[in-house]
Amino acid sequence: MPRRSTALDQATPEAIAVAALRLLDEEGPAALSFRALADRLGVSHATVQRRCADLAGLLDLCTEHLAAQLPDIPAGTDWAQACEQRFGALYRLLTAHPGLLVLRGGRPWLGRQLLARLVEPALADSVAAGMTAAEAMTVYRRMYLLTLGSAAFVDHRDPAGATAASRAALAALDPERFPVLSAGLADVLPPLTDHEVYYGALRQLIEAARPAIRPTA
């Protein structure tokens, strides 16, 4: 029987994902590398690479680790409540790890955990509520894009820093060309980091989707 590598036992996909997310959260996206992860895990650079193959594989491990934390919504939950719970949970996971969002960019997230814990149950609930599969996918897509965009727009782990940077940029504008932004700093800055802006928009999308729900026979 071949001997199992002790290094591979240490560098499990779960351990790599946890270490990578911690590195991203503590030091930012520029600090993430196979060598930095290997140092944290106490294994070789090659061992980490065997698990991930490349950066895309590493990011997939991280996103799958997060997706596994999405909630299971009990059967029979009101459709609107289930939507808010599912996408609200995704939003909280994404805003907690802004460095991961920066590195993933526009890459699709098609891991089994996300498909099993978010996409499939969300579509199934919508179809059960009376939507066609196409309508269900459209509704899902709108909520997913809102969630992803809202999480990526600003670093919610540092709202004070995000507000200060925006304030400095807006204060430098020419008031004649940007009269609303220049004169309304006190009003336009708070919504940038207000989580309720996202939740309010999510509820509006949920409410707008209700006409697609038809009574089932």
Summary tags:
single chain, 217 residues, mainly alpha, Arc Repressor Mutant, subunit A, Tetracycline Repressor, domain 2, 2 domains, flat
**So, the CATH homologous superfamily of the largest domain?**
Tetracycline Repressor, domain 2
User: Helix and strand string, N-terminal first?
Assistant: HHHHHHHHHHHHH
Which spans have pLDDT < 50 for at least 5 consecutive residues?
Answer: none
Report the CATH topology name of the largest domain: Tetracycline Repressor, domain 2
Structural class: mainly alpha
Give the overall pLDDT as a whole number: 89
| Tertiary shape | flat
Q: How much of the sequence is in beta strands?
A: under 5%
The total of beta strands comes to: 0
Work out the helicity level. 55-70%
Radius of gyration: 21 Å
Assign the CATH class of the largest domain. Answer: Mainly Alpha
Provide the domain count.
2
Overall CATH architecture of the largest domain: Orthogonal Bundle
Q: What's the N-to-C terminus distance?
A: 59 Å
Largest sheet geometry: none
SS element count, helices: 13
Keywords: DNA-binding, Transcription, Transcription regulation
Protein name: HTH tetR-type domain-containing protein
Pfam family, one: TetR_N
InterPro entries: Homeodomain-like_sf, HTH_TetR, Repressor_TetR_C, Tet_transcr_reg_TetR-rel_C_sf
